[in-house]
Amino acid sequence: MTDISARTRANQQSPTARIALRWGLYAILFIFALYYLMPLFVMLTTSLKSLEEIRTGSLVALPRSVTFEAWATAWSGACTGIKCEGLQPYFWNSVLLAVPAVLISTLIGAMNGYVIAQWRFKGANLIFSLMLFGCFIPFQVVLLPMARTLGFLNIAGTIPGLIFVHVIYGIGFTTLFFRNYYVTIPSDLVKAAKIDGAGFFRIFWSIFLPLSLPIVVVTVIWQFTQIWNDFLFGVSFSQAGTQPITVALNNIVNSTTGVKEYNVDMAAAIIAALPTLFVYVVAGKYFIRGLTAGSVKG
Amino acid sequence: MAPILDVQGLFKNYGTTEILKDINVSIDKGDFLVLVGPSGCGKSTLLNCIAGLEPISGGAIRIGDQDMTHVSPKDRNIAMVFQSYALYPTMTVAKNITFGMQVRGVDKATQATKLAEVAKQLQIEALLQRRPGQLSGGQRQRVAMGRALVRDPQLFLFDEPLSNLDAKLRVEMRTEIKRLHQDLGASMVYVTHDQIEAMTLATKIVVMKGGVIQQVGTPAEIYNRPANTFVADFMGSPAMNLIPARTSAAATGARIEIARAGATPLILHDPRATGLPADILLGLRPEDITEDGTRQGDLVQPGECLVDVVEPAGADTYVVSQLGGRRVTARLGADTRARPGKPLAFSFDLTKVSYFAPQTGERLN
Fold it and tell me: Are residues A127 and A172 located together in one domain of the fold?
């Protein structure tokens, strides 16, 4: 209905008015794009300038002479408190933390979703609601009990400890994603496989997981972004040597004495953000597809 | 010989709701059992119970003379074809068919031989490397059948396998299933809501309603001697005419009086009928009401009725009139003289007449 009325209205306008409107729309979109790109532009250009140039030049000007010194410092020389070895070790901490945490939480979520959607049992809905509730718990609330739990399990201040925390708090979302995906798959598939002789795990591995690529991509992107960007858990549950990159970035930016090295700060911030950008660029196509893909035909 | 499938006193409840009540059915090897009934009558649930996909609340299920009541589906030696086909979307047709054997650890050579055999039988050799998403409805149906056939089970189960196909394909596949049954001599249980499918395929029909078996019998028994008005009305198209009538004893048999709109009552005489109550429902199939003079016999009796509607259907013409306050359909030849609004002389053939009690709907003769 609205489509038709919009079209008739458009038809009534003169061609010049239509073209003007179109260009007006482009102009607005362009301005917003600029607005959003501006910080990135400033970060990039600043990171490529020397300190001297930052002090004397304008904030938005292009660098007069491009130097990667700030990047090198950020990667391997910047000081976080007393140590001056840059972001490098913390970057690897984050990788060691994020990769297993993403994989484990995705796998558990897939399993949970499969059980809740396809092997309905008494109380399945209740358990699912409780898991959903877990998605909305503010993380500050759980800091103290989690600290005690980690201490009890003897993994406080370690990377496995952080993995544990992220897996626990990721399961709510990953379960939600997979459950909603699997619920659209006809239950006859499970019945047919049961008659074919396949058991619980066989059906999961041979039939459901191969169907799940779109939702796996969505979950991996979501979880990776959450875990990589997490600061609160990282700062609360790590100690010197196991801190993730977000904590290190904070330390670099906040613990400098004397002259503030904006170029190094900017380079460090970009380094810290690159992996999530990278994941989104590589898998983004599937992300959109996965979010919109409902049922599986066939 | 022991029956291949024997369902004894089966009950199925969901919470306090009874879905199936005291189901007793058994079939012999080579039988084609069709479970038919309106939607919600429990026929699919019964099939799932037989397959072991639904636990039962009471009773026993024996397959091939073994108690299978608590045996898991994979060990019941059955194969099932689903309404949605339930093909594994990410596997090729070949993989779909061999998945069961693969799970059971059948060696690769045997898998290949059996696959080739089944593919040839169903003429799907050209499709083996495709995925289900690339197949048409009829092709998917064949693959689903292939998956069942390759198991060579004691018992085949079909859950409304044709209802997702268009009308033409449905008739083709129906014939194909019938041929398969004849060729294999396999035992089959088939669920459908389509009474024509039931009539054409079955060697034995179970008519269900509200979780209760209404009648068990051969297609001919069900069609000619329905156990109650529900079966009479459900099986056959157009449905059996159920005409309210009054009876009284005659010198031989019974005198039957049927109210006729705007005319004297129609009187029929059934010399075989005895002990009927005063009020009955007279059941006559449309083909047993013909144009006067087209059928001969002791039990063929004339009667004139006003024609309401004439519906030509190619080979036959259905003529609707009113008797006992109900619409009555007669199946006449294509060349009938019947004209709407005009009276026509009919013949009522009482050879296969059914009498029902109006209150209970139970058969009386």
Answer: yes
CATH of residue A244's domain is: 1.10.3720.10
Nearest CB to B89 within list A196, A202, A211: A211
**A127 Cβ contact list (under 8 Å, min separation 6):** A116
Total of domains in chain A: 2
Picking from A192, A197, A211, the nearest residue to B90 by CB comes out as A211
Amino acid at position B359, single letter: Q
A259 in a structural domain:
yes
Sorted by where each starts, the structural domains of chain B and their CATH numbers stand as: 5-234 (3.40.50.300), 241-356 (2.40.50.140)
Instruction: Express each pLDDT in A208-260 by its tens digit.
Output: 999 898 899 889 999 999 999 999 999 999 888 889 999 999 988 887 667 78
* Run means of pLDDT, 10 residues per run, chain B, 365 residues: 90 92 94 94 94 93 92 93 91 94 93 94 92 90 92 93 89 91 92 93 95 96 95 92 92 89 87 89 94 84 91 93 92 90 92 93 92
Q: Would you call A294 an interface residue with chain B, using a CB distance cutoff of 8 Å? A: no
Altogether, the residues listed in chain B come to a count of: 365
Buried (b) or exposed (e) across A12-30, using 16+ Cβ within 10 A?
eeeeeeeeeeeeeeeeeee
Residue A49 is part of which domain span? 2-76
Residues of A in contact with B80 (CB under 8 A): 191-192, 195
Assigned token pair, A108: 């558990």
Using CA atoms, how far apart are residues B10 and B54, in angstroms rounded to an integer?
A: 12
